[in-house]
Design goal:
By secondary structure, the protein is an alpha+beta fold. It is 14% helix and 33% strand. The protein contains 4 helices and 18 strands. The protein is globular, with a radius of gyration of 19 Å.
C-alpha cells in the first residue's frame, strides 16, 4: 500500500518552445502534440517531463508516481491531511488523483517497474594504497565523448509551506518513508524498499511549487561534462559540480527558462529496506552540499510564489 517510485513531472508553461529546447539540449527526446510536449529519456517509452503550453506562467501541474494498492492509499489520504481529487480537464481518470494538505496534485498509477538499467562503465579511482588503473589514461580527448544522455528521472524536489506536514502526508497517506531531513526546512522521502535515497523531497517556501527534477547519469565525469554543456547552451544560472551531504550524490544544477532547475546526478545512496535505515536530522550547514561552488542567490527562490520576479 505504498508509492514505489517517480514517473514524471508535468508543468504548465506559457509556451513549450523554450522548454523543448532546454530539455532536448539536456539530452531528453521530445514528442510534440500541438501545445503539449512530452520529454523522455532515450530508451524509455514514457515521458519524464510533460509541458502544457498556454498557461499565464510556469506552474507545477502534477507529479506522477508509481504505486500499489491504490484503494488502500485512497482510504488513508484524508486522515493524512490530503484529499481525493478528480482527474484534471484533459486527463483520463485512470489511477488515483490526490492533493496533499497544501494543494499539490499527485497522480498515482499501478504499472510495472522500468527495466533495470544496463551496467555502465566503471568509475575507477587510483587512491593511496589502491592503484587499480595502470598503463592507461582515465580521460580521453574531449572530442571522443558523445553528448551525455540522461538515463532516468530519479527524483523531484517540491516547495512546501509546511515541510513536516508534507512529509506526514507522504508517509501516512502515500506509504513512503522519511530518509533524512534538515530541521523543518528540507526533507527527503523514499520508497520503503529498493529506493534511491530520495524520490520526492520538499523545501520550505511561502507556497507550493516545483524546484527541480533530477536525472541520473553514469558517473561524476558525466555530471561535469553534461552540466557544463547545458550551462553553455542555457545561458542562465548553474550550481556545480559538487557533492551533497544528504544522499551523497554528485550534482550539477542548471536553471531552466522559468527559474527552476534541472539536476544531473550520479552515485546516490540506496535504501534497500527502510526498516534498516536510520533517518538523520542534519544541521543547516549540511542541508545543501558537502562541497561545491557558492550557492546561487536564487537557488531556493520559488518563482511560482513570486510571479512578478524575473528569473
Amino acid at each position: 500500500m505504498a508509492v514505489l517510485g517517480l514517473l514524471s513531472v508535468t508543468l504548465e508553461v506559457p509556451a513549450i518552445g523554450p522548454g523543448v529546447k532546454f530539455y532536448t539540449d539536456a539530452g531528453l527526446v521530445a514528442e510534440i502534440d500541438g501545445d503539449t510536449a512530452r520529454l523522455r529519456c532515450a530508451g524509455q517509452e514514457r515521458e519524464s517531463i510533460a509541458l502544457l503550453g498556454g498557461a499565464p506562467r510556469k506552474r507545477l501541474h502534477h507529479i506522477r508516481l508509481r504505486a500499489e494498492d491504490l484503494a488502500g492509499i485512497a482510504q488513508r489520504v484524508p486522515a493524512a491531511g490530503g484529499d481525493l481529487a478528480a482527474a484534471p480537464q484533459g486527463f483520463e481518470g485512470d489511477g488515483l488523483w490526490v492533493r496533499d494538505p497544501h494543494g499539490t496534485l499527485f497522480h498515482l498509477v499501478e504499472q510495472p517497474a522500468d527495466a533495470d538499467l544496463a551496467e555502465g562503465a566503471r568509475f575507477e579511482i587510483n587512491r593511496p594504497g589502491h592503484t587499480i588503473r595502470k598503463r592507461r589514461s582515465a580521460i580521453l580527448p574531449s572530442a571522443a565523448y558523445p553528448p551525455v544522455a540522461p538515463l532516468r528521472l530519479g527524483h523531484a524536489l517540491l516547495f512546501s509551506p509546511d515541510v513536516p506536514a508534507s512529509v506526514r502526508f507522504m508517509v501516512e497517506g502515500l506509504g513512503m518513508a522519511l530518509a533524512d531531513h534538515a530541521q523543518d526546512v528540507i526533507a527527503f522521502c523514499c520508497a520503503r524498499r529498493d529506493s534511491d535515497h530520495h524520490v520526492v523531497a520538499f523545501a520550505k517556501s511561502p507556497d507550493i511549487g516545483f524546484h527541480h527534477a533530477s536525472f541520473q547519469v553514469n558517473d561524476p565525469d558525466e555530471v561535469g561534462r553534461a552540466g557544463r554543456a547545458l550551462t553553455a547552451k542555457a545561458g542562465k544560472g548553474d550550481w556545480g559540480v559538487g557533492r551533497h551531504t544528504i544522499g551523497s550524490n554528485f550534482f550539477h544544477y542548471i536553471q531552466d527558462p522559468w527559474g527552476s532547475w534541472f539536476e544531473y546526478y550520479s552515485d546516490m545512496d540506496f535504501i534497500d529496506d527502510h526498516a534498516l535505515w536510520t533517518p538523520t536530522n542534519y544541521a543547516m550547514e549540511d542541508s545543501l552540499a558537502s562541497w561545491g561552488p557558492a550557492v546561487p542567490p536564487d537557488f531556493v527562490h520559488n518563482y511560482e510564489a513570486d510571479p512578478a520576479a524575473v528569473a
